[in-house]
TrEMBL record:
SUPFAM superfamilies: MFS general substrate transporter (SSF103473). The keyword Cell inner membrane does not apply. This is MFS transporter. PROSITE patterns: MFS. Its main location: membrane. Keywords: Membrane, Transmembrane, Transmembrane helix, Transport. The chain crosses the membrane at residues 40-59, 71-91, 97-118, 130-149, 155-172, 184-201, 207-225, 246-267, 273-295, 307-326, 332-352. It holds the Pfam family MFS_1. Residues 2-411 form the Major facilitator superfamily (MFS) profile domain. It is a multi-pass membrane protein.
Amino acid sequence: MKMFGFSLAYFLVILDTTVLTIALPDLRTSLGGSLAGQQWAVNAYTVAFAASLLTGGAVADRYGAARIFKIGVLAFGVISLLSAAAPHLGVLIALRALLGVAGALCTGGSLGLLPELFPDPAARARATGLWAAITGIALVAGPLLGGLLVDSYGWRAVFLLNPPLALISLLAMRKVRSARGHRLIDWGVQALACVLLGLLAEALIDSSWIAGLSALGALAALVFVERRSHAPVLPGGLLAVTWPELLAGVVANFAFSGALFVLTLLLQDTRHLTPLATGLAFLPLTLPMTVNPLLTGRLVARYGPRPPILGGLALLAIGLAGVSFTDLLAPWLVVMGFGLSFVLPALMAGVVTSAPPGTAGTAGGVLNASRQVGATLGVAVLGGLSHPLPVAATVTALTCACYGLAARARRTVPAVDSPGAVGLATRK
């Protein structure tokens, strides 16, 4: 029941990364706005989610994972109700940003609970596979339920899914408790991270050189403050250990979210499919995410996270190339779906296991922040290109090669001073 409770909350978080994409044409008809406004309706959530994930993980480590998880789930349900009643696009974008913050608290809390409920690394890897399978249903439900609800009731109905599911999650987790930790939080660093990502998204979506220069200034300030902080965002050595996984997370979500955005507009605006038909067209992509993570969890428990990550990135690149250069869609979407369902659970298991004691929430937050950065960049960059999918295929293939070289170079080198990290670093 506990596993179901926090998996259901992450289901909500992932559902909201995809469910609104299907509703974009109806949203445009109802509230108006430009293409950039539509991109911000999607990206306001992912930008705030990504920027707040570091804070969500740190807050969970500091104040107790269960407590922060419940606060995040409650806020998610309430803000969803407000989003359904948004009177115009600007209000919806603001509420989507707040929804992203609530999603970060849910995620930070749930990832902090994983090592508490499953202290054994092998059991945790299998539990991560089950968690990913349950939450992978959100990738199926997002386009499908979004299309069904938009066809029947309009875009506002997609937000009414969240409150009852949030209530069920809270009831399932009502008896779960977590002890407070001792991790300090530097709120200045967290604020700078939010500003940096927002400026970066603005620069990419609106081609604003002012926002681009401001983003460089925010990055310099973030590095300066982080290096002198009494409570840095990244625990010592964590980035050095996990940068290949973080890179893989960025690119996997870059490819997935960007391709979903581009293909949605293609199917509805060019091929004139209804929202429901578009959701059904994405089933070959999303269905593997409901079953394959169980296999991935077993593979990670037996062989470590790197083989599934390498294989998944390769499949994702092949699927993107197939969609780009053939007229077939469904077979290549299946290949992409299996690639993603190998990559994402393995990334989570590897990063959480290698984290120093007491920082699992922070480590999970760093990984999810990198993934949401990729999702934001995917919508912003690929949405503005004339040939987006070949670019996504090329970037993914290069990342696969880069990850393979990095994994080979560090195969026998322990990276973080923790038993879990040594076990992962020396595993063939």
